[in-house]
Amino acid sequence: MTEALPARSEASAFYRLIIPLMIAEVVAALELTMIYAAMRSLVADFGGTSSAGWLVTSFMLSSAAGAALFGRLGDLLGRRRILLWVVALSTVGSLISSVTSDLGWLITGRAMQGLAGAIIPLCFGLIRERVAADRVPLGISLIASSASIAAASGLVIGGLIVDYADWSMIFKVSAAMGAIAFVAVLIHVAPDKRSNLGGVRDDLVGGLLFIPAAVGLLLAIDNGGHAGFTDPMTMVYAAVAILSLIAWIWRELSVENPLIDVRLLAKPQIAWANILFVTIALGVFQGGQIMALFGQQSPATGAGLGLSATLAGFLLLPANILTGLIYPLVARANQNFGPRRVATTGCLMVVASFLALVAWHEDIMTVMLLLVVQAVGLGIVYVTIPIVIVGAAPMDRVSEATGMMAVIRSTAMAIGAQTVATMLSRGGGHHGASTGVFPTEAAYENVFLFVAVTALIGALVAQRLPRSLAAPSQ
Predict the structure, then answer these.
(1) pLDDT of residue 47
(2) What is the pTM of this model?
(3) DSSP-based helix, strand, coil % in the chain, nearest 5
(4) Which of 90, 133, 146, 424 has its CA 20 to 30 A from that of 452?
């Protein structure tokens, strides 16, 4: 009985830390996805997809830049302290968006909401810092689980809000949830024990140079997708990104204590894990975009399932919720079988499901079953990658390393989204004038094959992951 008490106390302390962090990550995930349900109303109110699209773009840009920068500030100044600042700024952004009808202020609010992209690397850093080594994979899996389930539910929740209120209510709900998350972290997560302001002063320039590099690259990809990669603005964005990237790398390699350590990305375990994330983000991360369109497209056009928007949203919901629930089992599998075997298995599940979709995509139940298989495979890889990176990164740079992981993922996702959109658009027009605006069946089959190939490359990359989980780096 006396031996059970310390174990019970340790478990209680573990969940007192994890649950507030899960609440914070739920807020970040819902802020990302609920807006999609309101896009039709926002397009109507602001006069077109280009204007309304900036509500998504501004969020993604600040999310990508903030993940690495605020993650590193958390490593130096205290992860709880920076987490509270990030949640507070994101909540203020929600409040601004909830009370304005001006597009400029709405974009400003969404950019502030996007700072919530730093929540997950800060959570990973807190888990590594405050949790026993054997519980770190479980902690990471629970954070990933909350993000996955919340993201999957965001479209449905956002749809219900828009159906019964208006788009401003989405931001009011986000603000209320942000306030709850702030209080939960403030009360239940113990204050930081250290702060290294000198580390910030040593290389503030390096941190500032990273922002235009990350933002410029994502803007170049985004603008190139709809205006063309020879468009003058695309070329300007690309030039800013390249010059800033070169200056940033030169700066970080020349200082003794860089704010964001480029050398960390070259560490084999971290490098191969990020490369695996690139292969997955290029392909299977586009599943939501692909299946939302395929699900709603009428079979009369030669392809599609002919579902309503709501039912199409439910196509991936069961798969994503099921996947989120099994994430803790993925953490245990990594401990028992090692990241290499686990990640390879996940990639091969994605390969099998999308190859099957090439042949069988007419029946709704068959499609849903295959989406469950691919979602579980993706979830396995999605949890394994941060487990590897968190374990390989030095204790004082965990949030930085996972923040850079988020930047790399966002960039690869942007490239993958443009690739998939191009493949689908080039496949249109084979069924006459009345249906030419929709992708053809052959176009969907090519996209399914593209996703399968990227996942197969991922399975090959996974062979470079460690065979077993080593003791975390100090």
Answers:
(1) 67
(2) 0.81
(3) 85, 0, 15
(4) 146
Give 223-290 as a DSSP string. Answer: HHHHH-TTSHHHHHHHHHHHHHHHHHHHHHHHSSS-SS-HHHHTSHHHHHHHHHHHHHHHTGGGHHHH
Other beta carbons less than 10 A from residue 59's beta carbon: 24
pLDDT of residue 250: 86
Contacts of 263 (CB under 8 A, 6+ apart): 253
The CA distance from 258 to 253, in Å, is: 8
For residue 111, the Cα-to-chain-centroid distance in whole angstroms is 16
Residue keyed to tokens 């573990």: 14
Structure tokens, 289: 């975009």
Which CATH architecture fits 261-474?
Up-down Bundle (1.20)
Cα 425 from Cα 443, distance rounded (Å): 8
- Listed by start position, the domains of the chain span 13-194, 204-254, 261-474
Residue with tokens 């059970």: 4
305-343 in b/e form (b: 16+ CB < 10 A) is: bebeeeebbebbbebbebbbebbbebbebbbeebbbbbb
Report the alpha-carbon distance of residue 334 to residue 346 in Å, rounded.
Answer: 12
Q: What are phi and psi of 439, to 5 degrees?
A: -65, 150
* Side chain identity, residue 113: Q
Fold identical between 13-194 and 261-474?
Answer: yes
Residue 312: the pLDDT is 67
Q: Which of 267, 318, 260 is nearest to 291 (CA)?
A: 318
CATH of domain 13-194: 1.20.1250.20
Q: How many other CB atoms sit within 10 Å of the CB of residue 8?
A: 10
Positive/negative CA dihedral, 148, 226, 312, 368: negative
Is the distance from CB of 161 to CB of 169 less than 8 angstroms?
yes
pLDDT for the residue numbered 398: 86
| C-alpha–C-alpha distance, residues 440 and 302, integer Å | 6
Residue whose C-alpha is closest to residue 152's, from 331, 373, 375: 375
pLDDT of residue 175: 93
Q: Token pair for residue 187?
A: 């009360």
Spans of the chain, pLDDT less than 50: 1-5, 429-436
